[in-house]
Design a protein that fits this description.
Layout (H helix, E strand, L loop, with lengths): L4 H19 L4 E3 L3 E8 L3 E10 L7 E6 L4 E4 L10 E9 L5 E11 L5 E11 L5 H4 L2 E3 L2 E3 L3 E8 L3 E10 L5 E7 L7 E5 L3 E2 L4 E9 L7 E11 L2 E2 L6 E9 L7 H5 L4 E2 L3 E7 L4 E10 L7 E5 L5 E4 L9 E9 L6 E11 L6 E10 L1
Parallel strand pairs: 2-8, 11-19, 21-27
Antiparallel strand pairs: 1-3, 3-6, 4-7, 5-6, 7-8, 9-10, 10-12, 12-16, 13-15, 13-17, 14-16, 17-18, 17-19, 20-22, 22-25, 23-26, 24-25, 26-27
């Protein structure tokens, strides 16, 4: 078999030349290609450095280093990096106005064999604390509040519950802060003020508490108070604070014997009142029976409309009936059909809250 030695030597020579040419190219190698800043505060620019080395046989020239957005600024050496030498690329990220997670790419273009290299930065910016004026956007005179309403949720009868409403001074002048409450509610509604003299941007709190043991009320309860600034009391919605709660009876400790002896309410779920003359008052009664053993106590009966005024009967003995009276004031009602709810709260542990629908027509 004939072997063309000239062709073999020619091929080997070309390969050696190619290897030599590759060996003469610059080679860029980074210690790391990604940096995680972790959690950082929103407080201006942050920066990190990426160190690289030219491991080739020719000078390395970075022709361009470009970030994926204007918030990221790379700084790189403009002079050639000789073989064996080390260089650094500094990457700055501007956190101002950029809360939240971020991930950015820096693209490097050079005369290295791998002409394009990419670096990555990431992290999470924790936003600045907003100024009080930006958080407290409910205006109460010279003060700002986050809300005029405090919802305490549900309270078991006999327990107390408290919450807070914050306020701040929106002006440059110092102000005196008080809270005016009704003497009617003073037995079960309490308040304290943490900062009665408040300077600009200072934050104070109205600490508000409802003690359900000191009231006979059950069900939804709303208590009102008025903010007084510099001794000037204004009875208006702008200065009114509302504290809400729902007082429920706790039956969780009842024994089996107590449950057997408990009262049981029996009543229809709907009643047709009939026709009511416009501009007149109408009285309607619907029966409630106790089919349990112990007396049935109607803790409260109420409606959400001002023109409905329900009244609870006295305690109803076992096997007896009582009547819930509802006064309907049709003075301001327009002609038409109405369906409204009456809510009954009793000491029947199985049906402590019952809703009755009243249907009537105004002519």
């Amino acid at each position: 078999m004939f072997i063309d030695m000239k062709k073999i030597f020619s091929t080997l020579f070309m390969a050696l030349v190619a290897v030599a040419m590759v060996a003469q190219d610059p080679v860029i190698t980074f210690e790391k290609t990604e940096h995680d800043f972790g959690k950082v505060n929103e407080a201006g620019k942050i920066s990190t450095e990426f160190t690289f080395k030219n491991e080739g046989m020719a000078p390395l020239v970075l022709s361009n280093v470009r970030a994926s957005c204007g918030c990221t600024t790379p700084i790189w050496p403009k002079e050639p990096i000789e073989p064996g030498q080390v260089g650094k690329i500094t990457v700055q990220y501007n956190t101002n106005g950029r809360p939240g997670r971020f991930q950015k790419t820096i693209t490097i273009t050079s005369n290295a064999k791998e002409a394009t290299t990419r670096l990555y930065i990431k992290g999470e910016v924790i936003p600045k604390s907003a100024k009080p004026v930006n958080q407290f956007n409910v205006k109460v005179g010279a003060l700002g509040m986050k809300s005029r309403v405090l919802d305490l949720g549900t309270i078991k009868k006999g327990e107390s519950k408290h919450g807070e409403l914050e306020y701040t001074n929106l002006t440059k002048e110092e102000h005196q802060v008080e809270l005016a409450t009704s003497s009617v509610n003073s037995q079960y509604f309490f308040h304290q003020i943490t900062l009665p003299t408040v300077k600009e941007n200072e934050v104070g709190k109205f600490a508000l508490e409802i003690n359900s043991a000191n009231t006979k009320l059950y069900g939804p309860v709303e208590v009102y108070a008025y903010v007084v600034v510099d001794g000037k009391q204004e009875i208006s919605e702008d200065y009114k604070l509302t504290v809400k709660t729902n007082i429920v009876e706790d039956f969780s400790e009842m024994t089996a014997e107590q449950k057997q002896q408990a009262p049981i309410i029996e009543n229809a779920n709907e009643y047709n009142v009939g026709t009511i003359a416009a501009g007149k008052n109408h009285k309607f009664l619907f029966p409630v029976k106790n089919i349990g053993v112990n007396p049935l106590e109607v803790r409260r009966v109420y409606a959400n409309e001002d023109y409905l005024n329900p009244k609870a009967p006295k305690a109803i003995k076992s096997g007896k009936k009582g009547s819930i009276t509802v006064d309907i004031n049709a003075k301001d009602l327009q002609a038409g059909e109405y369906t409204k709810d009456i809510v009954i709260i009793t000491n029947d542990y199985l049906h402590s809250i019952k809703t009755v629908k009243l249907h009537f027509v105004v002519e």
